[in-house]
Amino acid sequence: MDRSVTGAGGPVRRAALALLLILLLAGCGGGAEEAPAHNEADAMFLQMSLAQIAEGQQVAAVAEERAANPELRAVAAELLGQWRTESDTMRSWLLSWQRPIEADPSAGVHAGHGDLHSLRDEDLAALRSARGADFDRTAVALLLGNLHNGVETMRMESADGAYPPAVKLAGEMTATRQGQIQRLLALASAS
Amino acid sequence: MRRRFTLPALTVAAVTGSFFVAVSPASAHGYISSPPSRQANCASGAVSGCGDIVYEPQSVEMPKGSKQCNGGGSRFTVLNDNSKSWPAASVGQNVTFSWVLTARHSTATWEYFIGDTLLASFNDGGAQPGATKSHTVNMKGFSGRQTVLARWNISDTVNAFYSCVDLNIGGGGTNPTPTPTATSSPTPRPTATTNPPTPTPTATNPGATTWAAGTAYKAGDRVTYNGRSYQCRQAHTALSGWEPPYVAALWTAL
């Protein structure tokens, strides 16, 4: 126990000193020019959202084209438009931070639990082969599942993110998606 | 130049710990969307004042075996609140329940209850559900306002996902009183005796007769069923599915 505490003390102290040094340097260089800091939650929010949006786009693209209910087509079209704008912003931030667009698969975040990327090939196949009311029901269920997963990621960012524009985006996306979830739930309960 | 790279690296080190703690409880899964469950009515805005459940109707996850709408515990207790004006969907005797799934867990069973009566159980034998999941369940003669508790039992964890669905069975709309069936207490269903669509032939002397659906029993009445004797604990009109061995709230084995 003693040894591990002592062992941890060194790096922590060194990190604290390094941080102090950086703050001093930043102060000398006119810190106002520095972009606001981001943290790991910000990066994960963007990476996971991009993956979730990519999945949602596959469902929405089919739904926009084939849904019988015009309200479902409208929600799908609206999502596709908003996702394009949101994902452009997300990619630009990740690029500026020199972070990969996709999460590090070795990070283990999804191992055994996360499963937040839930769309499988067979789900899309099931959607494509569905007809009529069955198609609409399947599309609504898949879109709701996708949007709920996205909201979890946004709420994680709202709670833990550090980069103010990303935290703001997460809040706006949560509000927009909640509205679309409400419209989809109205469709689900009517079916 | 060096500064630019050092700062993010340090920030990463500083927040990584808290980040993973924050993410791991996020556990997306599933709930009933049609007829709308209580959490679906919260998420759709049909019912207000629900708290955080509006953001994650799919996350009512608790250990298996609870009869409460929130699965027990202190989270999402609003779902147990029968005084809230939960809309009841008008349905017939056969009801199709559709789920929204956000993670495809290996599944043991899907169970549907009204009070202590198991309406149906579907055994998936550990399979993962597909893109959609729905079950058609017979209401076993229940009528009027009832609350169905659905449990999605996961095969490789100790947990289940809970959804309560408020129904007006038979579509009569004449009995809007909320029933206490989905609360934690083992309270029996007093409304069953007053449901208008239920025929209620009065049994004046059920003494030690054979149990029969459609009979009105009073507390203390004795019946036999499958060779065993039971005593009525609470006045009710018997329905198919309420056979004495299955409804401990109504019958005590003698």
From TrEMBL, chain A:
Protein name, as recorded: DUF305 domain-containing protein
Gene3D superfamilies linked to this entry: 1.20.1260.10
Organism expressing this protein natively: Actinoplanes aureus
Domain DUF305: 42-186
Coiled coil: none
Transmembrane segment boundaries: none
Pfam families, alphabetized: DUF305
Automatic annotation (TrEMBL), chain B:
InterPro entries per UniProt: CBM5/12, CBM_sf_5/12, Cellulose/chitin-bd_N, GlcNAc_Chitin_IntDeg, Ig_E-set
Record's signal peptide: 1-28
Single GO MF annotation: carbohydrate binding
Domain Chitin-binding type-3 per the UniProt entry, residue ranges: 208-254
Pfam families in the cross-refs: CBM_5_12, LPMO_10
GO biological process: carbohydrate metabolic process
Record's GO cellular component terms: extracellular region
Keywords: Hydrolase, Monooxygenase, Oxidoreductase, Signal
Superkingdom: Bacteria
Region Disordered, residue ranges: 173-210
Gene3D superfamilies xrefs: Carbohydrate-binding module superfamily 5/12, chitin-binding protein cbp21
Compositional bias of kind Low complexity: 180-210
Entry protein name: Lytic polysaccharide monooxygenase
